[in-house]
Design brief:
Layout: E1 6-10, H1 16-23, H2 26-29, H3 40-51, E2 57-63, E3 66-77, E4 82-89, H4 99-114, E5 119-125, H5 129-136, E6 142-153, E7 156-166, H6 167-173, E8 183-184
Parallel strand pairs: 1-8, 4-5
Antiparallel strand pairs: 1-2, 2-3, 3-4, 5-7, 6-7
Protein backbone atom coordinates (compact mmCIF):
# COMPACT_ATOMS: atom_id res chain seq x y z
CA UNK A 1 0.00 0.00 0.00
CA UNK A 2 1.30 3.43 -0.90
CA UNK A 3 1.62 5.80 2.02
CA UNK A 4 -1.66 7.64 2.34
CA UNK A 5 -2.32 10.70 4.45
CA UNK A 6 -5.42 9.74 6.45
CA UNK A 7 -7.13 12.13 8.80
CA UNK A 8 -10.51 12.39 10.42
CA UNK A 9 -12.03 15.83 10.19
CA UNK A 10 -15.26 16.86 11.84
CA UNK A 11 -18.30 16.75 9.56
CA UNK A 12 -19.40 20.11 8.19
CA UNK A 13 -22.73 21.05 6.68
CA UNK A 14 -21.03 21.17 3.27
CA UNK A 15 -20.34 17.40 3.58
CA UNK A 16 -23.98 16.42 3.93
CA UNK A 17 -24.73 15.70 0.27
CA UNK A 18 -21.78 13.28 0.08
CA UNK A 19 -22.70 11.69 3.42
CA UNK A 20 -26.28 11.22 2.22
CA UNK A 21 -25.22 9.70 -1.10
CA UNK A 22 -22.70 7.35 0.53
CA UNK A 23 -25.18 6.23 3.19
CA UNK A 24 -27.80 5.28 0.60
CA UNK A 25 -25.42 3.23 -1.57
CA UNK A 26 -26.45 -0.44 -1.61
CA UNK A 27 -22.81 -1.41 -0.97
CA UNK A 28 -23.00 0.55 2.31
CA UNK A 29 -26.57 -0.07 3.45
CA UNK A 30 -26.15 -3.81 2.93
CA UNK A 31 -24.09 -3.87 6.14
CA UNK A 32 -26.16 -1.35 8.14
CA UNK A 33 -29.26 -1.90 10.26
CA UNK A 34 -31.36 0.30 8.00
CA UNK A 35 -31.71 1.20 4.31
CA UNK A 36 -32.74 4.86 4.51
CA UNK A 37 -34.15 7.01 1.74
CA UNK A 38 -32.62 10.29 2.85
CA UNK A 39 -33.18 13.85 1.74
CA UNK A 40 -30.94 16.85 2.24
CA UNK A 41 -33.47 18.18 4.78
CA UNK A 42 -33.12 14.88 6.71
CA UNK A 43 -29.35 15.28 6.67
CA UNK A 44 -29.50 18.89 7.85
CA UNK A 45 -31.77 17.90 10.77
CA UNK A 46 -29.38 15.02 11.62
CA UNK A 47 -26.37 17.34 11.44
CA UNK A 48 -27.95 19.88 13.80
CA UNK A 49 -28.95 17.09 16.20
CA UNK A 50 -25.44 15.57 16.36
CA UNK A 51 -23.82 19.00 16.61
CA UNK A 52 -25.49 19.49 19.99
CA UNK A 53 -25.26 15.92 21.26
CA UNK A 54 -22.45 15.10 23.69
CA UNK A 55 -23.05 11.35 23.30
CA UNK A 56 -21.69 11.24 19.75
CA UNK A 57 -18.90 12.55 17.52
CA UNK A 58 -18.75 12.22 13.74
CA UNK A 59 -15.90 12.70 11.29
CA UNK A 60 -15.31 12.52 7.56
CA UNK A 61 -12.62 9.99 6.68
CA UNK A 62 -10.22 12.05 4.57
CA UNK A 63 -7.49 10.41 2.47
CA UNK A 64 -5.02 12.67 0.70
CA UNK A 65 -7.51 15.53 0.87
CA UNK A 66 -10.48 13.52 -0.43
CA UNK A 67 -13.50 12.68 1.73
CA UNK A 68 -14.21 8.97 1.35
CA UNK A 69 -16.50 8.00 4.22
CA UNK A 70 -17.74 8.53 7.75
CA UNK A 71 -16.66 7.45 11.22
CA UNK A 72 -18.82 8.05 14.26
CA UNK A 73 -18.49 7.46 17.96
CA UNK A 74 -21.98 6.84 19.32
CA UNK A 75 -23.50 6.09 22.70
CA UNK A 76 -20.61 7.81 24.48
CA UNK A 77 -21.11 6.81 28.10
CA UNK A 78 -18.70 8.72 30.35
CA UNK A 79 -20.11 7.21 33.53
CA UNK A 80 -19.43 3.62 32.45
CA UNK A 81 -16.38 4.59 30.32
CA UNK A 82 -17.65 2.90 27.15
CA UNK A 83 -18.41 3.93 23.60
CA UNK A 84 -19.59 2.29 20.41
CA UNK A 85 -18.57 3.20 16.89
CA UNK A 86 -19.90 3.07 13.35
CA UNK A 87 -18.13 3.68 10.09
CA UNK A 88 -18.20 3.15 6.36
CA UNK A 89 -16.12 3.90 3.32
CA UNK A 90 -18.55 5.33 0.79
CA UNK A 91 -16.07 5.68 -2.06
CA UNK A 92 -15.49 2.17 -3.40
CA UNK A 93 -12.14 3.21 -4.89
CA UNK A 94 -10.69 3.32 -1.38
CA UNK A 95 -11.89 -0.06 -0.12
CA UNK A 96 -9.44 -2.91 0.37
CA UNK A 97 -6.43 -0.61 0.86
CA UNK A 98 -5.88 -1.12 4.61
CA UNK A 99 -7.57 2.14 5.56
CA UNK A 100 -10.03 0.41 7.89
CA UNK A 101 -7.30 -1.26 9.95
CA UNK A 102 -5.27 1.95 10.18
CA UNK A 103 -8.31 3.87 11.37
CA UNK A 104 -9.37 1.18 13.84
CA UNK A 105 -5.95 0.98 15.51
CA UNK A 106 -5.79 4.77 15.78
CA UNK A 107 -9.33 4.80 17.10
CA UNK A 108 -8.20 2.63 20.02
CA UNK A 109 -5.55 5.22 20.90
CA UNK A 110 -8.05 8.06 20.59
CA UNK A 111 -10.80 6.40 22.63
CA UNK A 112 -8.57 5.00 25.38
CA UNK A 113 -5.87 7.67 25.66
CA UNK A 114 -7.58 10.91 24.66
CA UNK A 115 -11.15 10.23 25.81
CA UNK A 116 -10.25 8.06 28.80
CA UNK A 117 -12.72 5.31 27.91
CA UNK A 118 -12.33 1.72 29.12
CA UNK A 119 -14.34 -0.18 26.49
CA UNK A 120 -14.94 0.23 22.75
CA UNK A 121 -17.54 -1.99 21.11
CA UNK A 122 -19.48 -2.57 17.89
CA UNK A 123 -22.53 -4.39 16.64
CA UNK A 124 -21.88 -6.04 13.25
CA UNK A 125 -24.40 -7.87 11.12
CA UNK A 126 -23.17 -11.45 11.48
CA UNK A 127 -23.10 -12.15 7.74
CA UNK A 128 -20.43 -9.42 7.38
CA UNK A 129 -17.68 -11.99 7.90
CA UNK A 130 -15.07 -9.93 6.06
CA UNK A 131 -15.32 -7.08 8.54
CA UNK A 132 -15.52 -9.44 11.52
CA UNK A 133 -12.53 -11.58 10.51
CA UNK A 134 -10.30 -9.43 8.32
CA UNK A 135 -10.71 -6.11 10.10
CA UNK A 136 -11.99 -6.41 13.67
CA UNK A 137 -10.42 -9.70 14.78
CA UNK A 138 -7.24 -8.79 12.90
CA UNK A 139 -7.08 -5.58 14.97
CA UNK A 140 -7.49 -7.30 18.34
CA UNK A 141 -11.23 -6.99 18.77
CA UNK A 142 -12.88 -9.99 20.42
CA UNK A 143 -16.28 -11.54 19.82
CA UNK A 144 -18.34 -10.99 22.95
CA UNK A 145 -21.55 -12.63 21.81
CA UNK A 146 -24.30 -12.87 19.24
CA UNK A 147 -27.69 -11.18 19.45
CA UNK A 148 -30.07 -13.62 17.76
CA UNK A 149 -32.60 -12.23 15.25
CA UNK A 150 -31.66 -8.74 16.42
CA UNK A 151 -32.31 -6.76 13.21
CA UNK A 152 -35.28 -7.13 10.87
CA UNK A 153 -34.19 -6.14 7.38
CA UNK A 154 -35.35 -7.01 3.88
CA UNK A 155 -38.01 -9.37 5.21
CA UNK A 156 -35.75 -11.42 7.44
CA UNK A 157 -34.30 -11.42 10.93
CA UNK A 158 -30.53 -11.07 11.10
CA UNK A 159 -28.15 -11.98 13.89
CA UNK A 160 -25.76 -9.31 15.16
CA UNK A 161 -22.27 -10.06 16.46
CA UNK A 162 -21.16 -7.98 19.43
CA UNK A 163 -17.43 -7.27 19.39
CA UNK A 164 -15.21 -5.12 21.54
CA UNK A 165 -11.91 -4.35 23.15
CA UNK A 166 -10.94 -2.89 26.52
CA UNK A 167 -8.17 -0.45 27.26
CA UNK A 168 -6.41 -3.19 29.27
CA UNK A 169 -6.41 -5.55 26.27
CA UNK A 170 -5.22 -2.78 23.93
CA UNK A 171 -2.33 -1.98 26.26
CA UNK A 172 -1.36 -5.68 26.24
CA UNK A 173 -1.41 -6.12 22.44
CA UNK A 174 -0.59 -2.66 21.07
CA UNK A 175 3.09 -3.51 20.55
CA UNK A 176 2.02 -6.26 18.11
CA UNK A 177 0.82 -3.67 15.57
CA UNK A 178 2.57 -1.21 13.31
CA UNK A 179 0.40 1.57 11.95
CA UNK A 180 0.75 5.12 10.75
CA UNK A 181 -0.79 7.90 12.81
CA UNK A 182 -4.18 9.32 11.91
CA UNK A 183 -5.15 12.80 13.08
CA UNK A 184 -8.56 13.16 14.75
CA UNK A 185 -9.85 16.72 14.51
CA UNK A 186 -11.65 17.86 17.65
Amino acid sequence: MNKMNIKLRRIKESDLVNVMEWRMKPSVTKYMNTDPKLTLDDQIRWFHAISNDETCKYWIIDVDGVGIGVLGLVDIDNRNKRVSWVWYIGDENYRGKGIAKTIQLNLYDYVFNKMGMHRLYSHILTFNTHEINNVHLACGYEIEGVLKDHVYKNGEFIDVTVMGITSDRWNQIKQDFQYSEVLFED
